[in-house]
Specification:
single chain, 270 residues, alpha+beta, 2 domains, ten-stranded antiparallel β-sheet, two-stranded antiparallel sheet, 4 helices, 24% strand, signal
Amino acid sequence: MNTKLLKGYFVWSIPFLFLACNSGPGTAKLLPPDPKNSEWYVQKEKDEDDSDNKLGLYALRFYPDGNYTLCADLLFEQGKWAFDAQKKLLVLDPEKGDTTIKERYLIDQSQPKGKAQFSFYSAYPIDKANPDELVKVLAVTNSSTNDPFKKDMHGWRNRPTQQENDVQLKQRVVAYLQFLLAFYQHAKDNNLENPGGTWYPQPIKFYSNKVSMAYENELGDWYTCFFSKEDAVKGYQLISGALMKAKIEGEDDVSRNIHCVEQLLVAVHK
């Protein structure tokens, strides 16, 4: 087991993406050209069983200041990380209320052809033969200055304690759209053709040939970002009204999504 102090951030994508900033796991030959700004990808083979990724992991980013963001299927978790030299593993400590898991433990292992394997556990002492989650990662260079995973990009998720006025509702929707724009700009900067996942609310749906609003039964996580369902519907209507005026143009899916979100931001701001 080749366990090292992980510095930086990591991201999974569909098929699974892993981003790492600063030094990553493995030997020196595994390090990307710029170890302070790099990505770790997991390419799932068609014949591989995906049952070891029970959470449906999409993204996990570590920051040098000790914060992290974990994104998975219907899960958005933030907290503190630290390397435990005695236990020889990385400890993730979620913020209260983010999850029922008290701590997560991460161990890395070098693999052939410049790859690495990451095993996650929810209890200590760990059973190395039975990780809760298991993903394989490969390093490439990250060329994006956009960061859709940082904490201040997700203030719109914080449910207010009282009814919001129209100005506050608009500000919440604008903050969501700014996150969405950063998400797709990050994908374009890194040549990611199919960014996605179910770790964030999607009142607006992007497809290869169209953009449409989500159905009512797809808005459960959107409702949790507002004081009431009534407010959430108003926020939804701000986006749907803006979408009616948008022109969907671009040379590829990600470019079209960026162009669309830019128009939504302009329309909602008015």
